[in-house]
């Protein structure tokens, strides 16, 4: 996972069309690796891997500061406007195995919009999709990334108020992944200070797994 002075974290972003999945990947990397814009159809049609530069000042282990590197896999949305579920699943599964097959995946980020309700059917389909990709231990290696948190804040919802008003479907999902969730302000996430806060939260989730990674070679059928 790392040499003595550097740690590499492998992440994948998953989600529906127009949730801000690719934009979230860009925010985590601190760059513009992935195409992201408003569109009447799904923008991302294939998987692509982005790499961050060395990030300092975010993590310490055993009293020493480590440089952090992120590898983020952007994926086509599911459901997709131009690809079947099987096409998306097979493409993501192949990319996960190709890019992270040796080192494993540290965390899958399920991207949801904070300014849109999560309905039961949508949640069920999404969970089934993630289970097919990651297997029975998916809950241990999945966190929820709630994008457009700035829009929820503009509507008068603090994080506490938002969770108090959230649907039982969303609360059940958050509970199933051991409350691993992050609110992402799309206007501020690219700012260095805001990005560092998000990265520290991600690292805390990974620490809860004792820095273990999910090995993906088994995902080929």
From TrEMBL:
Domain AIG1-type G span(s) in chain numbering: 6-221
PROSITE patterns, sorted: G_AIG1
Gene3D superfamilies, per the entry: P-loop containing nucleotide triphosphate hydrolases (3.40.50.300)
Keyword Signal in annotation: no
SUPFAM superfamilies cross-referenced by the UniProt entry: P-loop containing nucleoside triphosphate hydrolases (SSF52540)
A GO term for molecular function: GTP binding
Keywords assigned: GTP-binding, Nucleotide-binding
Domain of life: Eukaryota
Database matches in InterPro entries: G_AIG1 (IPR006703), GIMA/IAN/Toc (IPR045058), P-loop_NTPase (IPR027417)
Family indicated by similarity: Belongs to the TRAFAC class TrmE-Era-EngA-EngB-Septin-like GTPase superfamily. AIG1/Toc34/Toc159-like paraseptin GTPase family. IAN subfamily.
PANTHER family associated with the record: GTPASE IMAP FAMILY MEMBER GIMD1, GTPASE, IMAP FAMILY MEMBER-RELATED
Protein name: GTPase IMAP family member GIMD1
Gene this protein is translated from: Gimd1
């Amino acid at each position: 996972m790392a040499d003595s002075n550097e740690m590499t974290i492998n992440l994948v972003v998953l989600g529906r069309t127009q949730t801000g999945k690719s934009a979230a990947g860009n925010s985590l990397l601190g760059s513009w690796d992935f195409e992201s814009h408003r569109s009447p159809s799904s923008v991302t049609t294939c998987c692509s891997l982005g790499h961050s530069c060395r990030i300092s000042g975010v993590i310490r282990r055993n009293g020493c500061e480590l440089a952090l590197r992120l590898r983020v896999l952007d994926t086509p949305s599911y459901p997709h406007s131009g690809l079947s579920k099987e096409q998306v699943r097979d493409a993501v599964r192949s990319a996960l195995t190709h890019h992270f097959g040796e080192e494993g995946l540290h965390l899958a980020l399920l991207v949801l919009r904070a300014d849109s309700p999560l309905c039961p059917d949508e949640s069920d389909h999404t969970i089934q999709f993630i289970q097919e990709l990651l297997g029975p231990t998916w809950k241990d290696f999945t966190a929820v990334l709630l994008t457009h948190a700035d829009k929820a804040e503009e509507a008068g919802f603090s994080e506490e108020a938002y969770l108090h008003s959230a649907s039982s479907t969303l609360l059940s999902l958050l509970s199933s992944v051991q409350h691993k969730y992050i609110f992402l302000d799309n206007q501020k996430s690219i700012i260095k200070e805001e990005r560092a806060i998000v990265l520290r939260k991600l690292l805390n989730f990974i620490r809860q797994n004792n820095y273990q990674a999910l090995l993906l070679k088994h995902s080929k059928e």
